[in-house]
Amino acid sequence: MAAPRLMFDGPAAAPCTVLLGHGAGAAMDSPGMNRLAEALAGVGLRVARFEFAYMAARRDGQRKPPPRAETLCPEYEAAVAALPAKGPLVIGGKSMGGRVASLVADTLHDRGRIAGLLCLGYPFHPIAKPQQLRTAHLATLRTPTLVVQGTRDAFGTRAEVEGYTLSPSIRLLWLEDGDHDLKPRKAISGHTAAGHLATMANAVADWTSGLC
Q1: 40-44 — which CB contacts under 8 Å span 24+ positions?
Q2: Which of 37, 160, 184, 196 could form an S-S bond across to 177 if both were Cys, CB 3.0 to 4.6 Å?
């Protein structure tokens, strides 16, 4: 398996590196991924990004649909292996990227390869299909985990998620009125997208300081 191309943000000498996989429909350098990476780099973290092969193929005009998340696990592990991280490593990603990372996290944590898992907008279920939960492995997850979720995320609202059985290793940060991209409706909630990004980044920095 060919090593994926990596993008980097933040100081090379940062005490912790965060590896992010992208969501199902947006590339690693999409505006949303850029904002997430820049926010995390802005609080002193080293951020690495990579693309799954189906998304990289779209750059060559091949309109490949996202495969099942489980089939992407080897690609995520290959990205970890290719990453020249000198210090502790946290893996994760946006939506599907975080879900794939969660599927390989315990294996990598048991090997001492990663320190934690970061999920930004976890897809707890498909939109409008709350009965199709993607949480079975989250009940027994051993890896220290931070999930940052908007309270009105269509892939898992606060009201829904609070009814799930989740491992005590998982910490949830709720962003009020945030959607799947963590964005609030400013006119309704009084919150801003920039404010939520700052809250997310500062929380991640505080959380990783206890891991790295």
Answers
A1: 40/9, 40/10, 40/201, 40/204, 40/205, 41/9, 41/10, 41/11, 42/10, 42/201, 43/201, 43/202, 43/204, 43/205, 44/10, 44/11, 44/14, 44/15, 44/205
A2: 184
- Which residue segments constitute the domains of the chain, with CATH numbers given? 6-209 (3.40.50.1820)
Q: How far apart are CA 40 and CA 99, in angstroms?
A: 19
- H or E element: which one contains 32? helix 31-42
Read off the pTM. 0.96
Q: Which helix (H) or strand (E) holds 89?
A: strand 89-94
The structure tokens listed for 127 are: 């939109």
Give per-residue pLDDT as tens, 64-97. Answer: 788 999 999 999 999 999 998 678 999 999 999 9
- pLDDT 10s digits, 151-191: 999 999 999 999 999 999 999 999 999 999 999 998 888 99
- Answer positive or negative: Cα dihedral of 73, 100, 91, 52: positive
Phi and psi torsions of 11, nearest 5°: -65, 135
- Using a 10 angstrom Cβ sphere, with 0-12 exposed, 13-18 middle and 19 or more buried, the burial of residue 6 is middle
Residue with the two structure tokens 């998982």: 170
Give the integer Cα–Cα distance in Å for 199 and 37.
14
